[in-house]
Amino acid sequence: MTDSIMSKAATMEIPINSNGDTGTLPEDDSLEQAAKLQWSLDEKDLQQVMVSGPNLNETSIVSGGYGGTAEGIIPTSSIKGSNMHHSSSSSSITAEETTRGVAVEKLETVKKWGLNTYKCTKQMISERFGRGSRTVDLELEAQIEVLRDTKRKYENVLRLARALTNHFYNMVQTQHALGDTFADLSQKSPELRDEFGYNAETQKLLCKNGETLLGAVNFFVSSINTLVNKTMEDTLMTIKMYENARLEFDAYRSDLEELSLGPRDAVAMARIEAAQQQYQVQKDKYERLRSDVIIKLKFLEENKVKVMHKQLLLFHNAISAYFAGNQQQLEQTLKQFNIKLRPPGADKPSWLEEQ
């Protein structure tokens, strides 16, 4: 029925008067009813579509005009993927910029290090061939040379003291074994019991005094080792830093002097100003380390005198008491310097474990 009404409405003629206005037709009521019926049918179809729900991932976008056939389908998933790709690209660009910044910073550091090394090497070669000038502190350099010579001599004392300790330990071990042998023979040789007996006692007494002396000598060696390989070495490390700072200072000073003798245009003046700043930085570093070296040399000398006074007195009293056979004085020497021996049951050679 609907099709017949719409067909009839479509085939009707619409009369137009001379003024272009449509005339009143007897079939207007029928056409209005047909339009209302078609609208109700379209509304039902729309409700069914809304209930079933469209696929949001396939949204149809008509690209043509009314009645056109051109139509494009743009999946919404592709739009989401595009947004995600854009976010990923942004984060990737940020990471690349960060990596590039780190690389540039490292390259700048290497560049500065290479330039500094070149200048210091040039200064060193110039000094060795007598072409360049160097900053000299005669008094301080004399003190440094005295320290190095003192360290060499103290290292020799330490080496000899360790050798003495090692040899004396072997002698004490031999006396201990000899005393045990004499004691065993005194039990198995009745006719020589007394002779073996007092020789065994003598060796045991010498062995006991020898262990006491070893404790004192070992304390002496340990203190000298600390003085030479820790205290003096720490001061020499500061001196090495000072000498490197002196070389850098002279290198930048020579560079500034060369630039000052050149032209005075804008570019040269900028380079001179930069060189002046670097020179001031190196000068401050040099003066600071120079002050540190002077202070450490002063404290090292005071500490060395104090330590060696105590250790030399200990060494003299212990050796004298031992070879004089004065066991009481030897034990008193250890108490005076707060030296504690290991108990008799301790594993030997215990005193060498600290070397």
Question: TL;DR?
Answer:
This protein is mainly alpha-helical and 355 residues long. Helix content is 77%, strand content 2%.
Radius of gyration: 52 Å
**What would the average pLDDT be, to the nearest integer?**
77
Strand arrangement in the largest pleated sheet: 1-2
User: How would you sum up the major sheet?
Assistant: 2 strands, antiparallel
The string of secondary-structure elements, in order, is HHEEHHHHH
Strand tally is 2
Instruction: Quote the beta fraction.
Output: under 5%
Instruction: State the end-to-end distance.
Output: 120 Å
Number of helices: 7
Could you name the ranges where pLDDT drops below 50 across 5 or more consecutive residues?
1-28, 49-82, 350-355
General description of the model:
With 355 residues, this protein is mainly alpha-helical. The protein is 77% helix and 2% strand. The chain has helices spanning 2-11, 28-52, 76-128, 138-188, 193-260, 266-323, 327-336; strands at residues 59-62, 71-74. Strands 1-2 form a two-stranded antiparallel sheet. It is elongated. It starts with a helix and ends in a 19-residue tail after the last helix.
Looking at this protein, list some descriptive labels.
355 residues, mainly alpha, disordered C terminus
Task: Note the topology.
Layout (H helix, E strand, L loop, with lengths): L1 H10 L16 H25 L6 E4 L8 E4 L1 H53 L9 H51 L4 H68 L5 H58 L3 H10 L19
Antiparallel strand pairs: 1-2
Helix pairs in contact: 1-2, 3-5, 4-5, 5-6, 5-7, 6-7
